[in-house]
Amino acid sequence: MPPCHPHDASSMNSCAGPTERLLAPLRQTVESTHSNHALFNDATSMKTLLFDLDGTLSDPLVGISRSVNYALTSLGYAALPETEFAQYIGPPLDDTFKLVTGAPDAEIRQLIALYRERYAETGFAENTLYPGVEAALNALAQKGSPMGICTSKLAQFADKILRRFGIRDHFGFISGGDVGVTKQQQIARLLSDGTVDTQAWMIGDRSVDLMAAHANGIESVGVLWGYGSREELSNQLPRRLLERVDELPTLADLQSS
C-alpha cells in the first residue's frame, strides 16, 4: 500500500477510511459550487435551513418526465405517462430507473447518461418556481436565516436552475447528489466538514428528506405543496408540516424561540 500523505490530493483515497471513501464525492460536490466555501462555514452559524429543491422550491415534473422518457425510449423501453411520475420525484435517479425497468447496473448507467444528456440541454429549463417561493426566501434572508440546498440532483443542474430563477444568491452552498450517494450521506458530509451543525433543519416534500435528517440527528420540516402526501410526511414526525409556501418565513421565528 502506498504511503499516506494527508495533504496530497492524489493519496487522499488511500488515507481515508471506509466511511470517508464512501462520502468523498460529496466533498467535491459541495465545495465546487462556491469558491468561498470556508467563508460560508462562518456565515452559516448554527441554524442553517437546508432546502430540498425538487418539489420544495420548484416543480420539476415536466423536465424530469420528458428526460426520463427520452432515456427509456432511447433504449427501447415504453414511455411512462406523466400521471405516473409524481412517485418518482424526490428519490435518487438510479432508484427510479431500477424500479421502472429492473435493468442491470450497466444499463441503469446508460439510462442515467441519456437522462442527463437531455436534462442538461432542455430539461432544467422546464422547471418552474412555486408561486411565493422568491418572496419567502427574501423574507427568510431579511430575518438573517442562513440557507443551503441539499438535492438529489447534480449540483451543476441545481445551480443552473437556481440562477435561472434569480435566487441562487440566497444559498451559501449547494450539496448535490450522484449515483450511489444518498441524501443521508450528503447531510453526513455537510455535518462532518462543518458546513452545517446539528441545529440545522432539513426542509423537504418527501419522506426521504425527513428520514435523512433524522438519521443525522437534525430536525425536519415537511412541505405539502410538493409530491409527498400528508400521510407520507406525517409518518416521519417532522418538527413542522407546512401547508403553504408563505409559511416558510415562520421557520426563522420558530428556530429562535
From TrEMBL:
Question: What's a Pfam family in this record?
Answer: HAD_2
- Tell me the leader sequence span: none
Top-rank taxon of the source lineage equals: Bacteria
What InterPro entries does this protein's entry cite? HAD-like_hydrolase_sf, HAD-like_sf, HAD_2, HAD_sf, PGP-like_dom2
The GO cellular component terms are: cytosol
Q: Which GO molecular-function terms appear in the entry?
A: protein tyrosine kinase activity
Q: Which Gene3D superfamilies match?
A: HAD superfamily/HAD-like, Putative phosphatase, domain 2
Protein name in UniProt? Phosphoglycolate phosphatase
Species annotation: Paraburkholderia phenazinium
Q: What is the lineage of its organism?
A: Bacteria, Pseudomonadati, Pseudomonadota, Betaproteobacteria, Burkholderiales
